[in-house]
Write a structure and sequence with these properties.
alpha/beta, five-stranded mixed sheet, single chain, Uracil-DNA Glycosylase, subunit E
Length: 170
């Protein structure tokens, strides 16, 4: 099980759906060889250098946290039970509420949308989640059949949506 990297005062928290087998094996987020998470963070300007999965805890120093809806590792979301979607969303809401992040970004919209049993679009949402602005980004998994530059653009849009170092309403 991957640890949560959360603390008070975060500007952004990424919520993945569940860890890959590779991430679970080495104990770090987004460790699969085809995963574009770390490159997208750097290329979008969310961090100032290209981090490696082994440096995932360092995200906290950038005002960024990370967790998963479902902590059980699988080869893919097809291995998850339907109840894990809604149970996972409730668990994340309970987990994140005390931290009051400014923005919560689901890395991949499938888990969020299936948990609510509705269609969703990528990008900044009109609704909030746990009192935070909500952003749905395409999965950074290399398995998602979306052009890399199209996916990256959502992470650039996320960077624009997040006000780093300035708490909302203050």
């Amino acid at each position: 099980m991957l640890p949560d990297y959360l603390k008070l005062g975060l500007d952004l928290v990424f919520v993945g759906f569940n860890p890959s087998l590779k991430s679970a094996e080495i104990g770090h987020y987004y460790a699969g060889p085809g995963n574009q998470f770390w490159a997208f963070l750097y290329e979008a300007g969310l961090v100032d250098r290209l981090l490696r999965p082994e440096e995932d805890k360092e995200l906290l120093g950038f005002g960024i946290g990370v967790t998963d809806m479902v902590k059980r590792a699988t080869r893919g979301i097809g291995e998850l039970r339907s109840s894990e979607y809604s149970d996972g969303l409730r668990a994340v809401a309970t987990k994140l509420a005390p931290y009051s992040p400014v923005t919560i970004c689901f890395n991949g919209k499938t888990g969020y949308c299936r948990a609510l049993n509705r269609k969703c679009e990528y990008g900044l949402q009109d609704e909030e989640f746990c009192g935070a602005q909500l952003f749905l980004a395409p999965s950074t998994s290399g398995a998602l059949p979306m052009h890399r530059m199209e996916k990256l653009q959502y992470y650039i849009d996320l960077k624009t949506a997040v006000t780093f170092g300035k708490r909302r309403g203050k």
